[in-house]
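Format notes (please read before filing issues)

Several people have asked whether sequences and structure tokens are stored in separate files. They are not. Every record keeps both together, in the order shown below: the sequence lines, then the token lines. Line labels are part of the format and must not be stripped during preprocessing.
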Amino acid sequence: MTTFTTHTPESAPEASKPLIAKSMAANGRLPGLHAVLSQAPEVFEAYQDLHKHFMNSSLDKDELTVVWQSINVENSCHYCVPAHTGIAKMMKVDDVITEALRNETPLPNARLEALRTFTLQLVRDRGFVSDENVQVFLDAGFTKRNILEVILGYSQKIISNYTNHLAQTPVDQVFEKFAWKKV
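Then the structure lines:
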């Protein structure tokens, strides 16, 4: 097994120190994922930038959560599912949505289900979503802009999910109560 360093503000590469300070200011602590990502400042910065841009997309809090958690669950990310459960609670996303995503059960409305379905088609088919499936997504009230925003969210999740798989990042204590395993 390859061991990744979980950096502290003191041990991190010099180029990561401002990114760690930004993370700590935003989170009140240094999330484990960020401590691992700090080993590669460019990747850490890209992750932070992708997160900022995805949060500023036209998707609302429920839709952001659907994209993140659909990908987290599909990729069996032991770290991101609990983390995004806690984040969803902070964003005041209805627990019904969060639990449906965690348990892969139906979402409370057809629009969100269409978003989950499209997101999973994008992931599973590596972007080769059929015209018919794209049209179903658009018919659910989404736009071509939203298609690109789902790709943006997926880009962020590739960095976090794959890093957590390889580094076996421990779940942050604050999110341990939301521990999750794919059934």
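For reference, the curators noted about this record: Residues 144-167 form the longest helix (24 residues). Residues 59-178 form a domain with the AhpD-like fold (CATH 1.20.1290.10).
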